[in-house]
Amino acid sequence: RGGARAHSGGKMASTAAGKQRIPKVAKVKNKAPAEVQITAEQLLREAKERELELLPPPPQQKITDVEELNDYKLRKRKTFEDNIRKNRTVISNWIKYAQWEESLKEIQRARSIYERALDVDYRNVTLWLKYAEMEMKNRQVNHARNIWDRAITTLPRVNQFWYKYTYMEEMLGNVAGSRQVFERWMEWQPEEQAWHSYINFELRYKEVDRARSIYERYILFTLLVLVHPDVKNWIKYARFEEKHSYFAHARKVYERAVEFFGEEHMDEHLYVAFAKFEENQKEFERVRVIYKYALDRIPKQEAQNLFKNYTIFEKKFGDRRGIEDIIVSKRRFQYEEEVKANPHNYDAWFDYLRLVESDAGADAVREVYERAIANVPPIQEKRHWKRYIYLWINYALYEELEAKASKRTRQVYQACLELLPHKKFTFAKMWLLYAQFEIRQKNLPLARRALGTSIGKCPKNKLFKGYIELELQLREFDRCRKLYEKFLEFAPENCTSWIKFAELETILGDIDRARAIYELAIGQPRLDMPEVLWKSYIDFEIEQEEYEKTRNLYRRLLQRTQHVKVWISFAQFELSAGREQRLPRCRQIYEEANKAMRSCEEKEERVMLLESWRSFEEEFGTEATKERIDKLMPEKIKKRRKLQAEDGSDAGWEEYYDYIFPEDTANQPNLKLLAMAKLWKKQQQESEAAAMDPDKDIDESQS
């Protein structure tokens, strides 16, 4: 075994000489998980907890002699210098070093450290502030001035340096020096607050003239440098003058501000402040002028505060008229916004015009009307023009009734009629109003010409009726006849026109012409209300006491229609027509009507006829005729029928009432069988009731 080891050892040594030996990787024999598992989160948490463990404080060192003190200073300085050497740009290390030296009253060393730090980063504001504060704290005034001078020279845009510097000089009582620093600061054209600080500084020492000159310089600076200067600076300047009782100067400042901003950059705050200033000076007329000037020029959405203050002013110092003017002006602005947002909102135009008419003059009203009628509807459809046309109508009525300008009224009507697309649609109301206007102006030819033009361009029923009514009022009956002829050529189906034409001839006493017109009318193939026309014709013949012609008319009408109302009317006519044979004639008409109505599907109409016949017999008939009509009256029964929906599905059952006439029952055996069945059912019910109540039978037998 030993020889083997030696042999193997010699072999390994020989192989190690040839190349490096590779160690074998230890194999893990037990791959099962450990009983206690440790996660990465647990490791990090334990590390954090151990960081928080309080270390025992270092032992307190008591310095008993100078050598130990010097040794302590050396070690601290070495630590600070090492920190600075590691990272020169960390200014906090420099500041801590300097403050430590300052705590040891080593001012010169601290000053040297600050200077070294400024060489590293002279733009650090905190470094300058700490340096200057150290000098001021140690009452090194000249050193502090030197540092502030260097700071404002190096970083002139850091306002904090200027504020600290001026405050230091003021605290030292060096007012002239502080003013000099402010002047140097103003040369750099700082922001607004710096100027106000300078002004407040002068006011603290009662230097009003100097403060005024600073305000003037600042206003000039805003004019030359700023593109859109702020109104509040002018207001502050004016209030400064007002506060020191320089009222003329304050008014001049406000006037300069109004002139400077002009109408392009108007601001309500400037005018409100100006008005309140004048109000304090009891210049109420000037206040009113300022408010009105601003309200006329500032956009409405930007003048809410202006409106509010103006209203308050008028309530305090104005009369009722002034308050109403404010309200009207405010509403006018609202309407302006509405019509600007939607020029075709004609309801807004109507409200606006109503407001203007109640308050403004004629020229202003005309201007608004012209703006309104310029918004022509974009689509040539009548439904879009129905509201628009009333703008023209109101315009014309205003010119005629309010402005008393007949020439302008005629121009308005003519312009409107030229604007309307008569080939597509027209407005008869406009033509008739124009004609009536010309008649009021005693210009009948122009009125007739306008109505004739309207009938020629766009004939309408309303135009014909209006023209005919005009001629009737003028008693021009020949013209009326011609117009009726034209009207009936245009609309032969219009029954009202035929009736009116016939009535005209009747009034004029030409009965034959009236009868001929009625004959032409009933001969038309198509009529809109034929029943009205026939009734009018029949009433006409009755008025003329032409009873035979009336009967012929009824017969002709019954050839066209078998309506129950025609039969009833015919019967009532016969009842009232003549003294002799009127009852038999009337009864005969009822008989004929009843025979004719047997085949009618509408049983309700037949019932109406029989009821009318029964009322006639009750008044004029005998017992026999009354009994006969009672036998003709139907029986009312309740039935059920099946309903179907639109898609053909079953929709259930419906109950309805039906009428069974005795005359129909005699002709239909099925109905007789149904009546016998009902009678048998009734008898069965009575017998069952008697069987269930024997006491009732005994009582009946005893009785």
UniProtKB/TrEMBL annotation:
SUPFAM superfamilies cross-referenced by the UniProt entry: TPR-like (SSF48452)
Domain Pre-mRNA-splicing factor Syf1/CRNKL1-like C-terminal HAT-repeats residues, every copy: 92-384, 402-555
GO CC annotations on file: nuclear speck; post-mRNA release spliceosomal complex; precatalytic spliceosome; Prp19 complex; U2-type catalytic step 2 spliceosome
Record's signal peptide: none
GO biological process: spliceosomal complex assembly
Keywords of this entry: mRNA processing, mRNA splicing, Nucleus, Phosphoprotein, Repeat, Spliceosome
Disordered: annotated segments: 1-28, 684-703
Gene3D superfamilies for this protein: Tetratricopeptide repeat domain
Pfam families membership: HAT_Syf1_CNRKL1_C
Subcellular location: Nucleus speckle
PANTHER family (UniProt xref): CROOKED NECK-LIKE PROTEIN 1, PRE-MRNA SPLICING FACTOR
Similarity comment text for this entry: Belongs to the crooked-neck family.
Stated role: Involved in pre-mRNA splicing process. As a component of the minor spliceosome, involved in the splicing of U12-type introns in pre-mRNAs.
UniProt-recorded name of the protein: Crooked neck-like protein 1
Organism for this UniProt entry: Atrichornis clamosus
